[in-house]
Write a structure and sequence with these properties.
Length: 234
């Protein structure tokens, strides 16, 4: 099947915006539930369970694929932390791909237990600026490579490397092509739903943020959940 046929099929299968928005609204409430449930020096499973319970309350039955990393585990990029007591200064990565009725969204936020030191605040600021640089490239006709280079460029100026893709399409699956990697020639088209997810991972911690967008005549941020770091201090 040639690329033109693949693109036509993908656009024909593009999910309704209302379904995606419902999933994103539930995800935002789950992040808020996580923050409310956090208690200093408590097992990390408690706030995570609160987030999952919130999703169930909002959506009923649902599917989820998630990374939940705490403390030094956040440097691993992917996985799940269990049986860990959250301590002041820890970072927490919560990345949730949530699905229902054949539709998916995919978002990520990083939380900071108790406080975020100057180093982590600087890293977080780089990621917010990288996200903004990627957003400027989100338009029909832009290649995955162009998006990747825009996001990675901000990280490199700050002395960091992008260790995974800069984002990807989603909708009928949690992750679809194009995958925003170096050398990806596939271009965005109107009707696509895409993510941006820059991350920085050091020797003992990691930070990642992820938003979702719709590519129309103009690009719409479907997850305008505030990025100000103060919203994520637990």
């Amino acid at each position: 099947m040639d690329k033109g046929t693949l693109k036509s099929r993908r656009l024909a299968e593009t999910p309704s915006g209302s379904g995606i928005r419902m999933l994103l609204s539930a995800s935002e409430k789950a992040y808020r539930a996580y923050k409310r449930a956090y208690k200093p020096e408590a097992d990390c499973s408690r706030p995570m369970q609160a987030a999952l319970d919130c999703l169930k309350g909002e959506l009923g039955s649902y599917e989820i694929i998630y990374d939940y990393l705490c403390g030094a585990d956040t440097a691993k990029i992917e996985g799940k932390t269990t049986g860990y007591v959250l301590r002041s200064g820890d970072t927490v990565i919560l990345d949730m791909a949530v699905g229902k009725d054949g539709l998916w969204c995919d978002t990520c936020r990083t939380f900071f237990a108790g406080s975020a030191d100057n180093e982590k605040r600087a890293v977080y600021d780089i990621l917010v600026r990288a996200l903004a640089a990627g957003e400027k490239k989100l338009a029909a006709g832009t290649s995955g490579d162009e998006i990747f280079l825009a996001v990675r460029g901000v990280l490199k100026i700050g002395g960091h490397e992008l260790l995974h893709h800069a984002g990807h399409a989603f909708g009928i699956k949690p992750a679809q092509e194009p995958d925003f990697t170096e050398g990806c020639a596939e271009k965005l088209a109107r009707g696509m739903y895409v993510t941006l997810e820059p991350g920085i991972y050091t020797g003992n911690y990691g930070i990642r943020v992820e938003n979702n967008y719709y590519i129309g005549n103009a690009t719409e941020n479907l997850f305008p959940f505030p990025l100000d770091i103060e919203n994520y201090i637990l």
